[in-house]
Amino acid sequence: MEIKTQVAIVGAGPSGLLLGHLLCAAGIGCIVVERQSPDHVLGRIRAGVLETVTTDLMRELGIDQRLNAEGMVEGGFNLATHDDVIRIDIEALTGRHVIVYGQTEITRDLMEAAPDRGLAVIYEAANVALHGIESRHPWVTYEKGGKVERIDAGFIVGCDGFHGAARRAIPAGAAREFERIYPFGWLGILADVPPCHPELIYANGDRGFALASMRSPTRSRYYIQVPLTDTLDDWPEERLWDELEMRFNPLSEHGVTRGPALEMSIAPLRSYVFETMRHGRLFLAGDAAHIVPPTGAKGLNLAASDVAYLSEALIGYFRTGDEVALDNYTPRALARIWKAERFSWFLTKLMHRFPEDGAFEHRMQTAELEYVASSRAMQTAIAENYVGLPL
Ligand code: FAS
Ligand code: PHB
Q1: Is 82 among the domain residues?
Q2: For residue 294, how far is its CA from the centre of ligand 2 (angstroms)?
């Protein structure tokens, strides 16, 4: 079967679905092809903190009902050492806030609203391949039900994450890559237990980094820094709950409540930027183009700002033929991406124990945290970045 559309989107994660909704809402024809099943996509437990950049898009699309009902507005978050808690009052310092609402729920809301929007999403599309990206008539092929299908499009947008096919379709040497791989990972657990504290706590204690987050007043999300050599076999639930109690009971209002894990996973940490987000008629958005360590809660929100810029440029092109905004997409998006990369790297360096660090580096972390505690200017700088820099 041959299909023609204006924009073919590869990947139905937050980037692909947000972009598909925005284009569809503007009357631009688009189709999303996703290699996994809907349940598999929803089964990935990832981000938890949304900037208003992201929630504004959901409101603009009229898909923010559940987000407004269930999202937890957070006017502050906490940085802690093993025995001291510094509250960053983002509401007082910036007049803005963040919303705690899982990426899974954002994806579910976007998925469920797709049929009413008229957004076609093809799941379980195997072996997606991109063709003719340097021509004016690119196309995507994929396999489904034992047949090879083809989608001819005016543009292709790679929203297929870090391990997707789109970035790899760009010829080697066409872009500079920047990468830092961190010497540790995050072990995460999701459980239906009440959070230990009303706001997030990022802790840099003697035993390393830990994060107490949540999804709702009855569902918690915790992380601890683990060596890259660790696997889930090294972490029976009880051992992890012991660690979390040690780290957060002295710091939190309620103390840690144990419960059976709904999910446990270990995620590697990396900073990565692919310094072009366009090659011919192929664009990249979200994790397909960049990765941040989750410390700054930027990953999902950067995907949203990419999509905000790109949808505006594509809609403008299809309405007026003007290509200026398309030409400006890469520099415009990269300007915000690099600032988020910096903030995520800064907070990762400040809050984690690096194996190669010695006593001097630990003193630097201690001094920096003491300065944060004493300086409204430093707290404002952190708050501005945490709530998200302007588009
Ligand atoms: P995604 O990776 O979410 O989606 C890409 C989609 O493309 C997937 O559905 C995939 O199946 C599909 N795909 C891939 N290859 C394909 C192909 N060849 N053909 C068709 N489809 C294909 N961010 C935060 O802000 N906070 C966090 O705590 C946080 N934790 C994370 C934990 C982990 C383990 C990971 C990997 C990321 C985490 N992130 C976090 C970042 C994460 O939330 C991303 O920023 C976000 O998922 C980006 O969304 P997408 O760009 O849509 O990419
Ligand atoms: C989460 O709740 O999953 C979460 C929150 C903040 C982060 C990272 C992860 O910085």
Answers
A1: no
A2: 6
Let me know if residue 93 belongs to a domain.
no
Does 311 lie in the same domain as 371? no
- Average pLDDT on 326-346 reads 98
Atom of ligand 2 nearest to the CA of 214: 2
Distance 50 CA to ligand 1 centre (A): 15
**Which of 195, 36, 239, 245 is closest to 123 using CA atoms?**
36
Q: Give yes or no for residue 46 CB within 6 A of ligand 1.
A: yes
- Tokens, residue 167: 């970035």
Cα separation, 218 vs 159, in Å, equals 32
Give the CA distances from residue 389 to residues 289, 298, 381, in Å, rounded to whole numbers and listed in that order: 19, 11, 10
Q: Provide the number of structural domains found in the chain.
A: 2
Helix 299-320 vs helix 324-351: angle between axes, to the nearest 10 degrees? 180
Instruction: Convert the pLDDT of each residue in 95-111 to its tens digit.
Output: 999 999 999 999 999 99
* 47 CA closest ligand 2 atom index: 3
CATH number at residue 375: 3.30.9.10
